[in-house]
Design a protein that fits this description.
Layout: H1 23-34, H2 46-52, H3 57-69, E1 73-74, E2 83-84, H4 86-93
Length: 94
C-alpha cells in the first residue's frame, strides 16, 4: 500500500526559508499566498489549491498539519479550509 510519507530535503537556494523544505511545499505556499482573502464560496479552499497543483491530498494535509504546528497555518474546523497566518505570509515574502 502506498503511504503519503515523504522524505523532506531542503530546496537549493532557499536559505532563510528553513521551515519550507520541499519544492511542492514552496509551490503550495506561493499559491496560497497569492489567493485573495474571500469568504466561502468565492474562496478556494487550501485542499482544493493543493489538488489543482497536483499535490495528493494526503501529502497536502501532512504539510498543513506541520505548518499549523509551526504557526504558519491556522484553521477552525478542518485543515482543508484553513489559511496562512501572518507568519506564513511573511515566510513567503522573504
Amino acid at each position: 500500500m502506498w503511504k503519503a510519507r515523504r522524505r523532506f530535503r531542503p530546496i537549493a537556494g532557499t536559505k532563510g526559508h528553513g521551515d519550507i523544505v520541499d519544492q511542492d511545499e514552496w509551490r503550495l505556499l506561493a499559491a496560497l499566498a497569492a489567493e485573495t482573502e474571500n469568504e466561502f464560496p468565492e474562496r478556494k479552499m487550501p485542499g482544493e489549491v493543493a489538488v489543482l497543483l497536483g499535490i495528493p491530498q494526503k501529502i497536502a494535509m501532512a504539510m498543513y498539519r506541520r505548518w499549523a504546528s509551526e504557526g504558519l497555518y491556522e484553521y477552525d474546523i478542518s485543515l482543508y479550509s484553513g489559511r496562512l497566518t501572518e507568519k506564513g505570509m511573511n515566510m513567503y515574502r522573504r
